[in-house]
Design a protein that fits this description.
- The two termini are 30 Å apart.
- This protein has 159 residues and is α+β, with helices and mostly antiparallel strands.
- It folds into two domains: 12-52, Arc Repressor Mutant, subunit A (Orthogonal Bundle); 72-146, Lrp/AsnC effector binding domain/regulation of amino acid metabolism (RAM) domain (Alpha-Beta Plaits, 2-Layer Sandwich), CATH 3.30.70.920.
- A four-stranded antiparallel β-sheet has the order 2-3-1-4.
- It has helices at residues 12-23, 29-36, 40-52, 85-95, 122-133; strands at residues 72-80, 101-106, 113-119, 139-146.
- Strand 2 (101-106) and strand 3 (113-119) form a beta hairpin.
């Protein structure tokens, strides 16, 4: 069975398309083709190929957390009680189901996971910490870092 390579080579035209799509994922094929100097048919084929090769994963709407009462961003270091496959699996399976967790990364270093969480305020975070996070499988210790200012926030990759 042949597997897809992790790295997919792309040319400068693909890069122009990807930059434009990251800027405006709702751009029409006609506008995208004009912006990138391609015919509409060639543009459509290239974008389709980038989707099929897994370079473009999907399209989404970016929402304003403040307008949806989720303005407080918290980063949390999580240290597990044991570093075994069953504890890692139980923790990661559980964290995937928690809507307040925006990101979860297993990391190397002084702790096991780094979480990015969004809640409305400190009271909501206190409830999240006590009722949800510390009740998760294998959690031994946490360290909380409340974000005071978002200096840079982007979803764009440098292509």
């Amino acid at each position: 069975m042949q597997t897809e390579p992790k790295h997919v080579p792309i040319d400068e035209t693909d890069r122009r398309l990807l930059r434009a799509l990251q800027e405006d994922g709702r751009i029409t094929n006609q506008a995208l083709s004009a912006r990138c100097g391609l015919s509409p048919a060639a543009c459509f084929d290239r974008v389709k190929r980038l989707r099929e090769r897994g370079v473009i994963l999907g399209y989404t709407a970016l929402l304003d957390p403040e307008k949806l009462d989720q303005a407080l961003m918290i980063f949390i270091e999580v240290l597990l009680d044991r570093t075994t496959d069953d504890v890692f699996t139980a923790f990661s399976d559980h964290v995937r189901r928690i809507p307040q967790v925006m990101e979860c990364h297993m990391v190397a270093g002084g702790f096991d996971y780094l979480l990015k969480v969004r809640v409305s305020d400190m009271a909501a975070y206190r409830s999240f910490l006590g009722d949800i996070l510390t009740a998760m499988p294998g959690v031994r210790e946490t360290r909380t870092y409340a974000v005071l200012e978002e200096v840079k926030l982007t979803t764009r990759l440098a292509v």
